[in-house]
Structure formats: C-alpha cells, structure tokens
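G.,

No rush on this.
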Amino acid sequence: MLSYVQSGFLIGVALMISMVTVMVLNRIWPIPKRKLINEVTGWQLGILGTTYGVILGFMLYTVWNDFRMAEINTNLESASLVTVSRIGAGLPSQQREAFHALGLKYAEVAIHDEWPAMQVQQDSHASQIVLGEMWKLLAEVEGRRWWEQQC
C-alpha cells in the first residue's frame, strides 16, 4: 500500500503527463480540424462516461459496505470479549484471574499485532494462540469439576 506522499506524487505525475499530452495533441492536431470528429464521437464519450460513473458508484458502494462490515465485526469482537470476561467471573478465583489476564492479553494482541498486520494485508494468528490458551484454561476447570463430581 502506498503512503499518502507516494499516492500524491503519483497523481501529480499523472496530471502532468495528461497536460503535456493535451498540449502536444493541440499542437499536432488543432481544435478546428477535430471539430467534425468531436461531433460524431461526443455521444459515444457520453455513454462511456455514464458507464464509468455507474462502475465507480458500484465500487464506492462495495468499499463503503466493506468498511461498515469491518466496523461491525470490530464491535462484535469487542462485545464478545466483554461477554467472555463476564462469564469468566464465575470461575474459581485463581482461574478467574488467569482468565481475566488472558482476556487482556487477547485485546492487546488484537490491537498491537493483528490490526497493524491487517493494515499491510498480512495474516496474524496471535489471537488464535491466546484463544487456545483460554479454551485450555476452561477445559481444565470443567475437567476438575467433572472429576470432583465423580469422586
């Protein structure tokens, strides 16, 4: 992904190239000689411009929709983390503290590892490791409860 400076430079270069192309075209092929051709091709360029506008509109809709979905997923993930943290309050004190620490670790990993990785379009599986630790802790607690009930 390009930085803002690189993107701005690219746009500036494209504008300069287009301006030079128009100046060269006006020198080689003067406007009065193009007038007849412009009348013939004007409606074709209108159709082409309309088609481009429709395609651009669909692209903008898709990008906006993807942004909204990412925002919704972020809100759902944070709400799920709060819910899991509240559920962890029912664990015995030692496991509750460990579970709470894992919840904080998950949030830290999501913010500091996964989001920067997504920004450069890379995968980060750091949160899955923390989730595995959370499931392992819950399985140990449930296994102890089951064992205590059997004995």
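When you get to it, here's the other one too:
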Amino acid sequence: MQKIHSFLFLTIFVSLTACKSHEKKILVYSSSEIQVDDSKQHITVSDGSTHHEQELDFTTGDPVTLDIQSPLGKMSVSAVDDGLYILNLKNDTVIGSLRHVGADNGVPHYTQDQLQHIIDSVQQLMAGRNVSEANRNYFIAPGKLVKISAETKAKVFGPYTSIPGSFDAGSVPEIYKFYTVPEERENIAKLK
C-alpha cells in the first residue's frame, strides 16, 4: 500500500511540474501609436512625439520572435526565456531600475550627500555605465529588447508616468521605474 501511495504521489508531482505554465510579457514603448497584428508578433510604429505603451502577453515555452517595422528600420527581436521584457521602439534611450517603495510611497527625504550620490548614479546610468543585471538597472537603446525580470507580475511605471502616492507596493512582487534620457536630464536639472 505504501508503494502505491508513493507511486501515486510521484506521478502527480511529475504531472504538475510538467504542466508548468510559461509566460513572457513584453512591454513595447514607442513615440507613436503601436499597431500589432492578431498573432501579436508583427509590430508597426511610425514617427511621432507622444509616448505610447502596449503590453504583449505570450504563454509559450518556445522563443517569441517579433518582426518590427519602425522609423528605426526593419528588425526582429526574440524573447527566449520566460519573464518580463521591455522593447524600446522610441528614438530615445530608456533607462530605469528596480525601486524599493515602502511606507513613504517613494517620496523619501534625502540629505544633500545622498541626493548628490543619486544624481551621480543617474548620470552614470544615462551614459550606460555601471549597468548590470545584479544592480537591477537597465539601459535600453532604441530598437533593443531587454529582459527586466523573471517575475511577469512585476509592476513597471514607464516614461512620463509617476508612481502614484496611493500605489500599494505590497500588491506586486517588484516595482520598476523607467525614464527616457531627455526626461531624466530634466529631472536632474530640477534637483540641482
């Protein structure tokens, strides 16, 4: 009887792990309306000056290849692993990082030294320096697809979008904030 229970448990365990769902979420940023066909794998964007975002969800273990026609030209990009990605189809580089938002809802009070350190770090990020997966910061050049996280339920606040003071940080596993480089230059000028 013990062998039957062990065999049944092992069979159920193997079946459940074999049925692991796959998920790839791709956030597309562009400077004009984003047109996506029914397969969600052919994207067209034109010239523009207004920020647009579109989320594409895929539930396959296979790589997802997107064919793109944009002002940057024709290109293809592939999301191989499960996870959360950002595809930058803007003319500007997009930068951002993991945010630690707590009880202060992202509005902490900094000393002058802390503020200077933040400004220096952002300036390095804008130049593409000290960017690493370990640091959880990202420099996404135009036309590039970058994996941000293995966690597809993470919340991403894109360029020109603030993290609302009322946002419940406990409702999501991770929070990211992204800016365009020109937007971040303006933010630094205001801080100085």
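The mean pLDDT is 86. The two ends are 74 Å apart (CA to CA).

Enjoy the weekend,
O.
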